[in-house]
Structures are given as C-alpha cells and as structure tokens.
Amino acid sequence: MTTFKPLHTFHILVMGLPYTIDSPIRVVKYGTSSVVSIMDDELIEKMNAFYCKKFDLRYQEITRKNT
C-alpha cells in the first residue's frame, strides 16, 4: 500500500481574514493545503462571487435568508 507523502510542509501565517481569504486559491498551484478561519460571511460571499465570475463558474448567492 502506498502512503501519500506531501512534498512541502510549511505554514502560511495568518494575518487576518481580509488579507488571507484567497490564500488557499493562490497557493494551490504549489500543492499546499490551507485553512482559513471563517468569521466574515459577507466577505466570503463577495470572494465567492468574484472567483465564480473570474473562472466562469455558476454562481448562486447565499443570502442571509438562506443561513
């Protein structure tokens, strides 16, 4: 049985959500895993809309009524 061994083992420092919300998208090309603390649902929804438009993906807004 083969065990997956990551090539990189480093962490991206947390600077606050507005500065790092899209870090996972920016570093995925390096094969890095990221974790983001979710605190600002409106900012996350704006980023969702931005990247869906940028990559021509279907976007469905999550409003406060849906949560």
Could you characterize what this model shows?
This protein is an all-alpha fold and 67 residues long. The protein has a domain at 39-67. The chain has helices spanning 17-20, 23-27, 41-54. The model has no long low-confidence stretch (mean pLDDT 75).
Features:
3 helices; 67 residues; mainly alpha; elongated
- Sketch the major β-sheet: none
SSE ordering: HHH
N-end to C-end Cα span: 42 Å
Helix content: 25-40%
**Molecular shape:** elongated
Annotate the secondary structure layout.
Layout: H1 17-20, H2 23-27, H3 41-54
Short description:
The protein has 67 residues and is an all-alpha fold. It has helices spanning 17-20, 23-27, 41-54.
